[in-house]
Amino acid sequence: NMDASASVLSSSTSFSPLLSSTSSSSSETIGSRILDYAHHLQSGEFAENVNDDNNDNHADDNRNPLPNHIFEKEELLAYFEKCPETYIVRSDPRRFLKQRELYEKVTGTECMAVSVEKSWVEHSAGDFWVDIAVANSLPQVALENASMVLSRNNFDIVRAHLDILSDDDNGDVCMLRLLVERHDHHDNDDPSTSSTSDSINQVEDISVLDPILLELKRTKWMDPYAMELVFHRYPWLSLRRGEVITGLCSLLHPIMSKKDAFAFSLGNIFDMMTNKRYIQHASSIADLFLDRFRPSNPLSDEDFDERKGDLMTKIMTDVEDTMAKDLLIKMIEIVTHTLRTNIYLENRYALGLRLDPNVMHSDNADDKEVPYGVIYVHGRRFNSFHVRFKDIARGGMRLVTPTSQESHALESARQYDECYGLAYAQQLKNKDIPEGGSKAVNLINCDELSGDAKQFVMRKSVKAFTNTIFDLIVETDETRQRVVDRLGKSEVLYLGPDEQVTVEDINWIVKRAKNRGYAIPNAFMSSKPASGINHKEFGVTSEGVNTYLDVALRNVLDIDPTKDKFTVKITGGPDGDVAGNEIKILFREYGDNVKIVGIADGSGCAEDPDGLDHEELVRLVDNTLSISQFNWSKLGPKGELHAVDDNEEGIKARNSMHNRLVADAFIPAGGRPNTIDMSNYKNFLLPDGSPSSRLIVEGANLFITGDARQALYDEAGVAIIKDSSANKAGVITSSYEICSAMLLSEEDFASNKPQIVSEVLEKLRGFARAEAELLFSEYESHPDA
Angle CA(579)–CA(583)–CA(587) in degrees, nearest 5? Predict the structure, then answer.
């Protein structure tokens, strides 16, 4: 009973201060019982009580832990500093060391470790202690998840202890100890399955609890909808089935919404596929998926084809609703086109599928180029795509965080197309480096989340996505045993930072790459703050954007920016990478010759026909502040500042700034893809048909659709430098950084970093200027091209 266990917990929860502020002698005094027990253990006093059982999860005969260096006195004293005082004082020494072993398994990670043993003293042999250590989890969520799993398997929590331990820079570890007992209530509606507790009544071997322990470990990363499906609506569904069903439903949305966006909305897909009329069909498809990739005796191609044929026949015969039929058939098609999955890895953070990309292009009406590979990741409150156009590819990872369910559904429908478009643009801009183009887009459900909670979920999503990538591309003993590979080749991926990825994310990813055994960890992620070339710190993308702007001003507008006055409007805030650095480069290169007449970002917009104050803009950039923080007093007589803040007028002004303001050049250096498309491109034109800017240099990816670009040029003569040229400097930098990581140690790179950065910046400007001048030279020779 979850409510009952919560009330039990309230009297035994430890949130007291850690011991770090106390002296070593007081720590030694407080933990004397534990230190004394550990001393006897390390000396071999309890050797006759241990056996050779190496099972990580349970220890019914092995009451005492084995000797371990982490039980040495100095190690324990250091560990005490991470613990609440009440936890040390209250804990039984043997149980404390057992939980210390669990802590060791999760420290520095995002993992969960679980163990169980019989309760020998307090209750009968039918009761068990379940110990859980979970990194960076909200205590209430950890308890609720454990309670749901145990209740589903016919166990009640009769006592609970919870303590929060520090994990230094990694966050904290929630330590749960639950005393559970069996009950006879059965809510399993599937007669084909039996309750775990029935087996316990007949078998004394505690290993029969292993399935429960695996379920407990999965709950941290399970999507809330999957949890609802399994724990409340259809208890007969296993967690794996539920996760596969919800993962396939989410994947169906960007595929099927192209046929009918209303009929195949995200909500409609989930409602229909989890309806009582169709859940058995969906479950059978999940079983087909699970059996195809079962590590022991996976389905052969012949058996798979036979099972698939039987399922298709049953669906065509039994299902009358056309929508449901289309969805179920497409589900089977996805299973057929899955080449690799991490579904059977014990410590995975999310569900990952390496897909044959043809499944995303089966109705390729527009004859798009099919990418080389697609990876899909379904996790807790997020779904991700990684698309690449060559076997070895490089591209950024971005986070998309819509603030409402409605906007999330819209972004879900176009998520794959956005990722595809960004990857294709990356493929074009990677022409100066050996790697092909790729992109990762993580769509995160932030509905009803506060600022801190939103950041928490975003950081978790980054970790879950990248860890799943490692599941699918890093070969280890576990993956060789538990991942059925229908791709038949190893894969090499490289990531870089894009929208909303933080320095902390970058550092965690590199550290995790090393922990997971990636061949060259420093090469996996670019823009590292210490042993890399951070894009924002050195403004590498903006250096390229500004070089294209310089050449275009001279060729299109006959403006020498070093001598002539000119005006610019920018989307993307002073706190952003491309926009913030472009602001500083404009002032560095052209001084008072440049007037920035408008800037818009997510927080609002600032406008001034006389030019926004240079010093104030630099202050915002240097302090990583949005444009809404612009000082009103620094505006000129005609200046205006519009903040969004639930202000309809502010939202309207922000969304239209790039169209309304007249400037020589427009630099989209931030903003959502397809902001300007065929439905609204005429808004960029003035009443007389002339453009509000004659020159556009695309610092942001896919800001303008291809057909809208052509229309602006044909109807208004707007010269547009495409994103695949204008902002390619960032990925060139990443490639040089990774080459350096392959050749130099971290120490060698750090000691030579100033020279490396200087030479890379010189090359970036050279590549950009050479291509820009070539483009305009070709245009003069072939104006109709």
Answer: 165
In angstroms, the Cα distances linking 679 to 52, 495, 669 are 71, 34, 21
Q: Would the pTM count as exceeding 0.70?
A: yes
DSSP secondary structure code for residue 576 in this structure: S
| Alpha-carbon gap, residue 304 to 307, rounded angstroms | 5
Residue found under tokens 């201060």? 17
CB-CB neighbours of 86 under 10 Å: 16
Residues with a catalytic annotation lie at 439
Residue 223 DSSP SS3: coil
Whether 126 has a pLDDT exceeding 90, the answer reads no
What is the gyration radius of the CA atoms in the chain, in angstroms? 29
Q: Flag whether pLDDT at 14 surpasses 70.
A: no
Measure the N-to-C terminal CA separation of the chain; round to a whole number of Å: 72
> CB pairs under 8 A, 24+ apart, for 292-295?
292/335, 292/338, 292/484, 293/338, 293/341, 293/343, 293/344, 293/483, 293/484, 294/344, 294/484, 295/344, 295/481, 295/482, 295/483, 295/484
Helices first, then strands: H and E counts in the chain: 29, 19
Instruction: Summarize the confidence of residues 620-647 as an average pLDDT.
Output: 93
Give the integer Cα–Cα distance in Å for 232 and 219.
14
Question: How far is C-alpha 363 from the geometric centre of its chain's CA atoms?
Answer: 28
Cβ proximity of 298 and 343 under 8 Å:
no
- How many residues are listed for the chain in this entry? 785
Q: Is 50 exceeded by the pLDDT of residue 195? A: no
Q: What is the pLDDT of residue 785?
A: 64
**SS3 of 446-462:** CCCCCHHHHHHHHHHHH
Position 588, amino acid: R
Whether the predicted pLDDT of 711 surpasses 60:
yes
